[in-house]
Amino acid sequence: MGNIKKYYENTEGALPNLIVKKFIDMNIKPTNAIDLGCGAGRDTIFLINNGWKVLSIDKENTKEMISSKLDNEKIKKFRFENQSFEDIKLEKTNLLVSNFSIPFCDKEHFNEFWKKLLIAS
């Protein structure tokens, strides 16, 4: 994981992104979400705690870091996939969260990545 590990450790207990919190405050019926570049899982955990089923995707394997914060019932709403944006495979979803992660996609693959985001949402 290298230097990114320090970032994950520093954000592991962080509050969810303000935009995600505001979205939840809109009281939209929870369904399926994808958290791209989920990192330590602050948005994933918040969404799950608010009834959403979440597919978390990150280049690094942070599955255990996230799942350790979920009880047995909430873990059923969590899936993790270790993928890079350059060759990502996405499924249809009702909510796509990608705070601060899209710029990590290699510019040579960005147009293809963006098309996949549009199809999934």
Structural notes for this entry:
- With 121 residues, the chain is an alpha/beta fold.
- The chain has a single domain, classed as Vaccinia Virus protein VP39 (Rossmann fold), CATH 3.40.50.
- Helices cover 33% and strands 16% of the residues.
- The protein is built from five helices and four strands.
- Strands 3-2-1-4 form a four-stranded parallel beta sheet, covered by helices on one side.
- The radius of gyration is 14 Å and the shape is globular.
- The mean pLDDT is 93.
Helix content: 25-40%
Q: Per CATH, which architecture?
A: 3-Layer(aba) Sandwich
What is the tally of helical segments?
5
| Secondary-structure element string | HHEHEHEEH
User: Measured on Cα atoms, how large is the radius of gyration?
Assistant: 14 Å
Which sheet architecture does the biggest sheet show?
A: 4 strands, parallel
Structural key phrases:
Rossmann fold, 4-stranded parallel sheet, 5 helices, alpha/beta, 121 residues
Topology:
Layout (H helix, E strand, L loop, with lengths): L3 H8 L6 H8 L6 E5 L5 H8 L3 E6 L4 H5 L10 E5 L12 E3 L12 H11 L1
Parallel strand pairs: 1-2, 1-4, 2-3
Write a concise synopsis of the structure shown.
With about 120 residues, the chain is an alpha/beta fold.
